[in-house]
Structure formats: C-alpha cells, structure tokens
Write a structure and sequence with these properties.
This protein is of the alpha/beta class. It contains 15 helices and 22 strands. The structure holds 2-aminohexanedioic acid. The site of 2-aminohexanedioic acid (UN1) has 11 residues, from loops.
C-alpha cells in the first residue's frame, strides 16, 4: 500500500508540488510512500503559522507544557512497534536498532516532561539592600528544525521535544527520503495535546528549504535553526544565521576515531569497532571512521576485526542482522564514490568482495533471498590508512572502516584529531592515565572509554567541534541553552534610586595587618 504524504500546516495536509517516490531500500520494487514536496512559499507559510501560534503556547505554564511532552512519550511508547517497522521499511535500519531509536524518543520525552517542572532560574543576591536579582529562561520564539534521515525520529526529537517544552513553536523539515516515518511521528506529535499551530511539518527538498528559510529568517519569522546534516550545508546555514545575528544549533558530520592502546582488551575493542563501524551500515554521525591501533597489537586487531566482519550477518533488516541496506539510492551512489578513495597501498578485508552485493559479487552468508533486490553493500575494512590519505579526512557514510597504526601516544592523538572533525571518539585501554590524557587532548565533543563511538544516551550533551559543529549541544539540560535565552531581572523595593557600583556600602579593612613572626 502506497501512501501519499504532504506537508502538514496547522495539522492539515497541503499537497502539491513535485512528487517523490520512496522505495524500500531492502526491496526496491516495494514503494513505501509518495511524498509531495512543498515549494518555498509553503515552507515560509509553515514558519508564519508557527510564529503566529508562539505567544499563546509560551503563555501555557511550563509544567502543563511538560504534560503534553508526557502524552507524546506515551503515544510514542504505545505506537513503538508500528513506528519502528515504518523506519525499517523506509530506511532499512535493522528492526532491533529501529526499536532502540524509538526508545530514544521515549527517553527524551521522559527527561523533558520533568523539565517542565524545573526550567529553573535563579535568585541572585544584589549589591544593594532591598533589591533582588533574578534570572528567567525565556523561549527563543519559532524554531526551524532540519534533520537527516539516518535517525529519522530520535534526532528530530532531540530538537522538537525541548524546543516545545521551553515554549517555542516549531517547523520540522525532515529528510525528504524518509517522509513516511516523518508523517507517522508528526501524527503522534499532533495527537499529543499541543495547540494547533505549535507544530508544523514542511516536506521539501534542500534547495527549497534553504530558500524558504532565508526568507523566514530575514523577515523575522524564524528565530532559531536546528540542523543535523552535512558540514557544507551546516556552513551555509551558519552563514545565513550569522548574517541575521542568530546562532544555529548545528550537528554535522564526523570522522570518529577509535584508539586501541597496547594494554587494551582487544576483543572488546573489536566488538566496539564492529558495532560502531558497521551498525546502521556505517550511516550514523557517530559511526567509526578510523581505528587507530598501536603497532604492537595492530596485526592481532586486524585479524580479529576481519574475522568478526567476515562472520557478521548482513542482509534483510527485518531479521537479526548487523546491518541492512543503504538508506536511499543517493547514499548508495555517494558511497560508491567514496570506495574510490581506496588506494594501492591499502589492504582490504572484511568480505568476499567490495561494493554492491550482487549475484556476481556475492556476500558469503548474506541474510535474505536476493541481495540485488536491495541496496546492499559489502563491509570493507581498509588497512594501512595514513594521515595523507583522502580516506583519512573524508567522512564516508557507509560500511567502510579505515585502520591506521601508531607507536607513540602523541601520534595517536595527532591521527585522532588531524582530520578536523570533532564529534565522537573512543579509546580502548586498561590504564586510567591513558583514558584521562585522551579526554584532555581529543578535540571531540564526546569521548568513550572502552565503549564504541556510537550509542549516546539521551540525557548527555551530544554535539561536536570543528567540522562537526559550532559547539552547540543537544540533549539533557545542556540543550535548554539552545531553546531559551536568559533574561535577567532586578527589582529594587528600597523606594530610592540605588546606583550599581556607586551606591554600594563599603567594607573597611586593615590591610596593613600581618601575623606576628
Ligand atoms: C546521529 O548519527 O546523528 O549515538 C545520531 C548514537 C545514536 C545517535 C546518533 N544514539 O549512535
């Protein structure tokens, strides 16, 4: 059954515009949805509708807003299996991971429903008597949230849930290649008790979205942008926001290193590398980019990692597999280009071939009937990566992991930071000194010790530095600074004008006093 999906303005579908057909990437002859993509005017209209609804929503007491977040969490939990199945059908994520992703939305709601009863400000002592100082968190206004499709509900929830809780209204522009998931999540949001207008769904392609966003920001309709996607697009959004004196929340790419020290538990490191390198077919922002392995354990690591990857189940995402197909044809095409970064000095391991899994280039142990029916790719380990390689500095969204080796800790750090990304990172070691030195010197926003580069929990700050973002953080209490602005208030009830710094009572001290020798 094919559903046609359109933007939802004030909860009502607004069809029209070009139609995009979405195939199940595990079975390309199965059409999942048809998406009617909006034009820039409709995107702007969605932003205006959200802007109109903002004053009323922000005047709802925060604990009541938290109640709406609670209802959303319940609805997502009660529809978890259906939502997970849509994700798997639309983007090919293994069903177990899709269930985990839905759980991440529930966790986010659970965290923020309570925040409605906190959203703390402070009382601050004044320099003067009969005067009090306070701080309040004020909503930013209307937020435009533009997200990728690799985490089609969890990552959007990291923006939408806290933004709404803080009294903002939102326009969500999901990935145009995951509209069925977006529409399902949007329906849950629309049924959670938020007032009409507080949430808008705009389905559009990237170019149109940017055009709509530009007009919305320049006319004062959008006050905040949240964006998860590529570094290049993040840069353009950063420029647009910067010109208009806004700071966007940017979550961009990664080339996440996993350092294996000579004292590491190598099996544990292999397990971590397998999950973070190839889970979601390597299409997470947190996916492992390069394993940086001490030369003493390099050969052992590569041998065990190769064995694990060769034996890993790849195939039908409705079954128990390490990974399924690529998310979409666009991802598959880009991945083929990145495979071209493998050079003669590299050694390739991990499967019976490289590239798309076909009848001519089969994957031994493929889970499923016909690999050619979907966008399946061989897992590829590329050993012998050096800092000079394009592969070392390019984010390669797909099932490919580089391996580099080092002799000194300084070399490991240089390799772990040298590509300029700074999202996630990991070190495997049994020495606390290495763990803490790594934490100090790694430029990444997130550091794992004896754990893979993936698997962030929903209440720790998530975000990166350098090519991975502008230092903004999502999740937990940290994201509140993205969706609120601090407002300072002072109240003088002395009945006279007390001037700060000038009318402050003095403390007289004898600073010549010294203790007897
Ligand atoms: C992303 O890839 O954009 O840490 C987010 C993880 C997930 C979130 C990844 N919980 O892998």
């Amino acid at each position: 059954m094919t559903t046609t999906i359109a933007s939802l303005l004030n909860g009502r579908a607004v069809p029209g515009g070009t139609v995009r057909t979405i195939a199940n990437p595990a079975r390309l002859d199965e059409i999942v949805a048809e998406a009617s993509l909006a034009d820039a005017e409709t995107c702007l209209g969605a932003c205006r509708a959200a802007k109109d609804a903002q004053p009323a929503w922000s005047s709802v007491p925060a604990p009541v807003r938290g109640r709406a977040i609670q209802q959303l969490g319940r609805l997502v939990e009660d529809n978890a299996e259906a939502l997970a199945r849509i994700i798997t059908r639309e983007i090919g994520k293994p069903i177990r991971e899709s269930r985990g992703e839905v759980q991440e939305v529930v966790d986010t709601c659970t965290f923020f429903l309570g925040e409605g009863r906190r959203l703390y400000g402070m009382t601050v002592p004044s320099e003067m008597p009969d005067k009090q100082l306070f701080t309040f968190r004020a909503p930013v206004g209307t937020a435009a949230i533009v997200t990728a499709g690799n985490f089609p509900v969890a990552v959007p929830s990291w923006y939408l849930v806290p933004a709404l809780l803080c009294g903002n209204t939102v326009v969500w522009k999901p990935a145009e290649y995951a509209p069925a998931t977006a529409e399902a999540f949007a329906q849950l949001i629309l049924h959670a008790g938020f007032p009409v207008g507080a949430f808008q769904l705009a389905l559009a392609d990237g170019v149109t979205t940017f055009a709509g966003l530009e007009r919305a920001i320049e006319t004062g309709v959008v006050d905040k942008v949240g964006f998860t996607g590529s570094t290049d697009v993040g840069r353009r959004i950063g420029e647009l926001c910067g010109r208009n004196l806004q700071t966007p929340c940017l979550e961009l790419g990664g080339k996440n290193p996993l350092v294996v020290m000579p004292d590491a538990d190598v099996d544990l490191a292999v397990e971590g590398a397998l999950f973070s390198g190839f889970g979601t077919a390597g299409q997470r922002c947190t996916s492992l980019g390069t394993a940086i392995v001490h030369s003493d354990v390099h050969d052992d690591f590569v041998a065990r990692f190769t064995k694990a990857v060769v034996e890993a189940p790849v195939g039908d995402p409705t079954r128990d597999v390490l990974y399924g197909p690529m998310i979409d044809a666009r991802f598959a095409e880009r991945f083929e280009r990145w495979l071209g970064l493998i050079r003669d000095h590299h050694t390739v391991h991990g499967s019976t071939s490289v590239g798309r899994i076909t009848r001519e280039r089969p994957r031994e142990g493929f889970v499923g009937d016909d690999p050619e029916a979907g966008l399946y790719y061989h897992p590829t380990i590329v050993d012998g990566v050096t800092a000079e390689d394009d592969l070392y500095r390019t984010e390669t969204f797909g099932p490919i992991v580089g391996v580099a080796s080092f002799d000194t800790f300084d070399e490991a750090i240089a390799l772990a930071n040298g590509h300029g990304y700074g999202l996630s990172s990991s070190i495997y070691t049994t020495d606390p000194l290495h763990a803490f030195r790594f934490r100090e010197r790694i430029s990444a926003g997130m550091v794992s010790v004896n754990n893979s580069t993936s698997g962030a929990e929903a209440h720790l700050p998530f975000g990166g530095n350098g090519r991975s973002g502008n230092g903004s953080r999502q999740s937990g209490v940290w994201v509140l600074d993205q969706f609120t602005r601090w407002q300072a208030m002072n109240w003088d009830y002395s009945g006279r004008l007390q001037k700060a710094q000038m009318d402050v009572m003095d403390v007289s001290a004898d600073l010549t006093y010294r203790l007897p020798d």
